[in-house]
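Sample entry (386 residues):
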Amino acid sequence: MRRIAYALCALLLMGAVYPSDMSAKKKKKREPNWGEVLVPEEGGTSFERITDDNDCVSSLNTGKRKKRFWDGKEKDLTEIDWWINPLIAVSPSGDKVAYINSKNGTYNIMVKNAKQGGASVQRTFRTAVSDFTWSPDGKELCFTELRSGHFGIYLVDSEAGNVVHQISTGTDNDFGGSMSRNCKHIFFHRGEGKNAYSIWSYDRDKNLFSNYSRGMSPVQDPNDPDVIYCARFTDRKESEIWRINFRTGTEEIILSQAKRCFTTPQVSPDGAWILVTGSSLSEKDQYINTDLFVVRTDGSQFTQLTYHPGNDLSGVWAPDGRSIYFISERGSEKRVNNVWKMDFQLGGGGYVPSTNYQREDSRRKTINDNFIPLDKLNNNNKKKRR
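Predicted structure, serialized as tokens:
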């Protein structure tokens, strides 16, 4: 088991993000106060810890910082790795939260009451679960596991039993499965080498796999079944957030900043906001870490939500859109990961059914006039990024 766990950690770097040179000018840095629950920049925001240290919440080695050398000179803390796929989930009813537990060399999904306290219930009995999401109907957990040297997508009942249904086939590496709102399709991304991923879907009724475009960690727009949001690596190994419309062939960039990376997009229940994990540099401590950010789906009102020097990542929305659950090292001198909950104060977020999906923006976009949808998409239809 320990050998499998080590293999998972090694492959984690394939999905990691490498911000390019975010280091500040060389100066003596003091060690941040990891034990703080919140920092002054987060004033007015309510934080609640959902799990405790005994729950052994895993972030799959997130926060491994590196040193880089340029022309023989050392620069401090210029890179940070994190797992780009979702590591926690909230039930559609909002009464339960699930996370990946790391214990005795294995990684499994645990389900806990969303209120602080209470025992956790184990829902997978595997060896190397590496990400997961909750189905919109609340009946299933869709997870990725490393088995026989390859990552694949699987399903398990969210309430009872341990029967696992395999979705991925062959020797491909598939990650980040998430279901469509009607639960008939599973979106995921397939690895094609380091920092190269393509978006796929699986039709559960027709047993059909379809290739769409390049990207990773796809999630469906709650108001339009033909639209997904995803992350994409650039040739500079920086990650951006994109929107893809499979019906029109339009691909639009939503969030991008030089020398920064944004991953793991999660769309608010009303379709107004995108929640992401991003690379950040503490101005006070000059310490690189991961934080949570939001941006409206029209690309406006980009806002940083967390500022703690510890890593905050893998945020997901509560069903009412009024709060966010995430993994964090905050409140722990030993930097132990736990699941936390914070309130969302920028307005909107809650589920509002919509039949009129409109956009008005002037962001960069590319339109493929020869777009071939679903499984007929081929390599000749690749979009130009700029």
